[in-house]
Design brief:
The protein contains eleven helices and eleven strands. It is globular, with a radius of gyration of 19 Å. The strands form three sheets. It has a five-stranded mixed β-sheet with strand order 3-4-2-1-11. It has a four-stranded antiparallel β-sheet with strand order 5-8-10-9, with helices on both faces. A hairpin with an 8-residue loop joins strand 3 and strand 4. 39% of the residues lie in helices and 18% in strands.
């Protein structure tokens, strides 16, 4: 790849979601391969003590990387967790010959810069059946399952679980300090969730939107939509490989939602409180552990969140050769 192509691939790869926009990834690029590493300095020890959400974020970046290479006509050969002696090495991606992106892959690639996490109210318009089918298929294409919560009784119980999880977290001073550190800032910085992207203050009686990403500076708005589409992404089993797979599937689902004009935000409290996550697994009636919970609907445009510069994310053979001299 040329230098410009490397920059373009990296710009696409890092346009992935991560908890509080921590962007917990790093890359090493050589002529033969691209290594994707987890950046443990950006793991959230309170909200994500096991690193599960960190690995999901890296999986989402890996899916974007795959798409970007296909956009250049390069077939990506991916090895997940290839080196037991380097536990933070998420994946190695090598050139597997030539392959053109399919029309669907091209649409997903074009959606990467348009995807946003939308923390604002959605309209009450229903998500059409064609989009629901496409979202489920996107998850299946990456070896996962997307459960759409349509049963009224299940929705009520899931809402109760969401409020319970939020109460547990908000009562923990360490959790609120961590949240405040990464969100609601007004000063320019290349990571975290700025107040402009935090959305309005949640209503006291809100069922689905409860976190304040503005440090209390957001404006109170009318109530959020009453009936968003709630989707639960599940995998075959717990484990690091499955968490990375969940991230790849998550990004495919998010980009598919973008191509259908849908807005998406996360209900992360449901998977961050262990006893609530287990109760949710039982609620959806299966052995598959839930990894991500999404709120989907029709929203209005929101600003991009910032991204760290190329120089902070990427190491190349040329840089390391220069430092060794």
């Amino acid at each position: 790849m040329t230098e410009d192509e490397v920059h373009d691939v990296m710009e696409t790869a890092v346009r992935a979601p991560s908890l509080h926009n921590t962007q917990p990834w790093a890359f090493r690029i050589s002529d033969a391969e691209i290594e994707l590493h987890a950046d443990r300095t950006r793991q959230l020890p309170v909200a994500d003590p096991s690193g599960r959400e960190l690995r999901i974020a890296c999986g989402a970046a890996l899916f974007n990387l795959r798409l970007a290479l296909l956009g250049l006509g390069i077939k990506p050969l991916v090895s997940i967790l290839p080196d037991p002696d380097r536990p933070d090495l998420i994946a190695v991606v090598r050139r597997g010959g030539a392959r053109r992106a399919t029309p669907e892959q091209r649409r997903l690639l074009e959606a990467v810069p348009r995807r946003r996490t939308n923390r604002r109210p959605f309209s009450d318009a229903e998500v059409p059946a064609t989009a629901r089918y496409a979202l489920r298929r996107a998850a299946l294409d990456e070896g996962t399952w997307l459960h759409l919560v349509t049963d009224p009784a299940q929705r009520i119980e899931l809402g109760d679980l969401a409020r319970r999880a939020h109460g547990v977290q908000i009562a923990d001073p360490a959790f609120t300090a961590e949240l405040d550190h990464w969100t609601g800032h007004g000063e320019p910085r290349p990571d975290g969730v700025p107040a402009t992207a935090g959305g309005p203050l949640p209503q006291p009686n809100s069922t689905w939107v409860m976190r304040d990403f503005t440090r209390g500076t957001g404006r109170q708005q009318t109530a959020f939509e009453a009936e968003p589409l709630i989707a639960i992404l599940t995998v075959h089993s717990d484990g690091q490989r499955e968490e990375i797979r969940a991230g790849e599937a998550l990004q495919r689902v998010l980009l598919t939602a973008t191509t259908h004009g849908l807005a998406v935000s996360f209900l992360s409290q449901l998977v961050e409180v262990p006893e609530v996550r287990e109760a949710m697994r039982r609620l959806v009636g299966g052995l598959r552990p839930p990894q991500v919970v999404l709120r989907l609907g029709h929203g209005w445009p929101v600003p991009l969140t910032p991204r760290r510069p190329f120089e902070d994310l990427v190491r190349t053979d040329a840089q390391e050769d220069q430092e060794d001299r």
